[in-house]
Amino acid sequence: MTKGNINVSVENIFPLIKKFLYSDHEIFLRELISNATDATLKLKHLTNIGEAKVDYGNPKIEVKIDKENKKLHIIDQGLGMTAEEVEKYINQVAFSGAEEFLDKYKDSAKDSGIIGHFGLGFYSAFMVAEKVEIITKSFKEEPAVHWICDGSPEFTLEETTAKTDRGTEIILHIAEDSTEFLEDSKITELLSKYNKFMPVPIKFGTKTHTLPIPEDAPEGTTAETEEIDNIINNPNPAWTIAPADLNKEDYTKFYHELYPMQFEEPLFNIHLNVDYPFNLTGVLFFPKLNNGLNIEKDKIQLYQNQVFVTDEVKGIVPDFLMLLRGVIDSPDIPLNVSRSYLQADGAVKKISSYITKKVGDKMASLINENREDYEAKWNDIKIVIEYGMISEDKFFEKSDKFTLYPTTDGKYFLWNELEEKIKPNQTDKDGNLVILYATNADEQHSYIQSAKDKGYEVILLDSPIVPHLIQKLETSKDKISFARVDADHINNLIKKDEPAISKLTETEKETLKKIVEESIKDSKFTVQLEDLESTDAPFTITQPEFMRRMKEMQATGGGGMFGMGGFPEMYNLVVNSNSEFATKILANENEEEKSSQIKYALDLAKLSQNLLKGKDLTDFVQRSYQQLGK
User: Fold this and answer.
1) Left (φ > 0), alpha (ψ -120 to 50) or beta: where does 163 sit?
2) I need a labelling partner for 13 at 20 to 30 A (CA). Which of 167, 319, 458, 607 fits?
3) What are the C-alpha distances in Å from 283 to residues 239, 266, 268, 292?
4) CA distances from 24 to 94, 190, 496 (A)
5) Contact (Cβ atoms closer than 8 angstroms) between residue 318 and residue 328
6) Which residues of 248-281 are buried (b: 16+ CB within 10 A; e: fewer)?
7) 423 near 435, Cβ under 8 Å?
8) Mean per-residue pLDDT for 418-422?
């Protein structure tokens, strides 16, 4: 038997491990199972290249709880260790066997899936255990050995006949403050969280399997059952399989495996697969989002060689794609020792750029493959696309190929199609292309109708980030401007070189304006006289485009230094000086009647803008009924 001290640079490293090395104690199981997976995959590689003359078979990793004796066992059928290897890899802390293995076999082992970042992983066991045992037998013809350490730098190592088959068994004597890890439910939870897609089958207990009843069995035959291994993981998840070998049902099944509480199917997926200049695989799903910006639930999961690392993927995944779901797996994403926090570096930035490019390419191919289907899904995906256009310049550069601009009539245009459609009719006298848009087709119906009467197209932009999107488009494209359809009278939104004909003299106009201002006495409204068609509405309420847009941007986290979110509501009251109503007001000498008519017309204009509410609406309804009785 050998006794000795573990080669550590600190007198007692284990309290430090327990307190500082890992922020979350539960990851000890992830680390130990990852080590067991490494050992199994290494053996597979060595048998493949003929260096291990053994039968690889169908190895699995087993987790067992011995609640009575407060022990947790992790057993693998991998390559095992000799006494010399235990001395080297276990007793010399921070010397990574996996890294040495990769260095030795770096050319042939490149794609074998070995994790290789577990220098201190084994010692995470001491976060939950007061004593740890290793019983291991190498695939080489050497005796099995038994290593014991009680959490001090002292250990014992001796040969044993207790193990005759190759592999390693780690026994954790669970400490009093960690007995939760002796509960089946806790271990099931951890295995499901961290090891659901590990590449080696993981057994945790058994389960009852009902056998099918033979077709020729007599009526009333009871189905037989058998106890089988309870394998808790899927060793071959979708992202590890070539896209050509998967169909839509496979991807949908995998989506529900990732997110068991999601009952809706994803709209489509993007399969990521790159091996230069970094290794990355994964599958991203577009869920049904509508106009939602909730990114807290069902996040994208980050794996490293099928080991779950985190669902905090900010930095690797561009912000706008945090709205998606799915998996990214890369051995090239650098992690600190606890594998829980990402370190920002060049590789991460390249990965983020690649994912952005891949999503853009996928959108372009989807619209080309099936335009009708893409249009049908637009409302569910537009928030991601629009967010990407605002936040990622490279994505914006590609966006004309796949961003749709729907009209209030339900037609869909790509940018170049929209330009071509509206250029002849919606170019103003200064040569600027004016794009009219609505944010709510019902509330802005009368304004939309006025625009359509002039042959104009009105596009529907109703997501919460529209003000930011419009600003991006206006500053990136030449000679275009956006105007919400209710921002002014339609004649003023697209100004043409057409002389306005006025029925009233300038003096009459000044008198009319004064009468209206004195009647409404409301600082929210700026009275503005326009020479419109006699058939146009006498009063129209508009909100200045700049003012409204800045308020909206403020509400969605923008607006810069203007602080428009706190500004009072301000509107223009456009008075049609050519309307019959204007002529009647000027001719009416009954001041009370005149004021009453103006207030009633203002209420009608407010009603069309959904601005008539509360007591004002109640009074308006009562006055309207009184008018019916006259």
Assistant:
1) beta
2) 167
3) 6, 12, 10, 22
4) 20, 12, 67
5) no
6) eeebeebbeebbeebeeebbbbbbbebeeebbbb
7) no
8) 95
Nearest to 319 by CA among 403, 404, 390: 390
Rounded CA separation 306/298 (Å)? 18
> Which single residue is written with the structure tokens 């919460």?
464
Residue pair 456/426 in contact by the 8 Å Cβ criterion: yes
| Higher-pLDDT residue of 524, 545 | 524
DSSP structure string for 424-471: TTSB-TTSPEEEEEES-TTTTHHHHHHHHHTT--EEE--STTHHHHHH
Closest among 90, 89, 83 to 142, alpha carbons compared: 83
In contact, 71 and 173? CB cutoff 8 Å: yes
Which of 65-69, 154-158, 315-319, 573-577 holds the top average pLDDT?
Answer: 65-69
For residue 388, give the nearest of 474, 470, 292, 321 by alpha carbon. 321
Please give the structure tokens belonging to residue 3. 């006794």
Neighbour tally for 373: CB within 10 Å:
12
pLDDT of residue 346: 65
Question: How far is the C-alpha of 360 from the C-alpha of 390, rounded, in Å?
Answer: 14
DSSP state at residue 487: S
Q: The pTM is what?
A: 0.74
| In the predicted structure, residue 12 carries a pLDDT above the cut 90 | no
Answer for the pair 408, 458: CB distance below 8 angstroms, yes or no.
yes
Apex 248 CA angle, 244 and 253, nearest 5:
110
Model confidence pLDDT, tens digit, residues 255-292: 999 988 888 889 989 999 888 778 899 999 998 876 55
Torsion angle, alpha carbons of 70, 76, 77, 78, to 10: -140
3-state helix, strand, coil in the chain (%, to 5): 40, 20, 40
Give first-to-last CA distance, the chain, whole Å.
113
Sign of the CA dihedral running 97, 101, 106, 111: negative
Q: Which residues pair with 302 in a beta bridge?
A: 310, 328
Beta-strand pair 325-329/280-286: antiparallel
Confidence of residue 467 (pLDDT cuts 50, 70, 90): confident
- Helices 591-608 and 506-520, axial angle in degrees (round to 10): 80
Q: Using 50, 70 and 90 to split pLDDT, how confident is the model at 401?
A: very high
Between helices 591-608 and 614-629, what is the axis angle to 10°? 120
